[in-house]
Amino acid sequence: MIAPLPGAVGLTPGTTIQHTVIRGEWLLQIARCYGTAYSGVWAANRLPNPDLIYPGQIITVPNIGSLGRIIGPPCVQAHPVEAGETWESMATRFGTTTAILRRANPGELSVGRIIWAPRP
Question: Considering the entire predicted model, what is its pTM?
Answer without folding.
Answer: 0.85
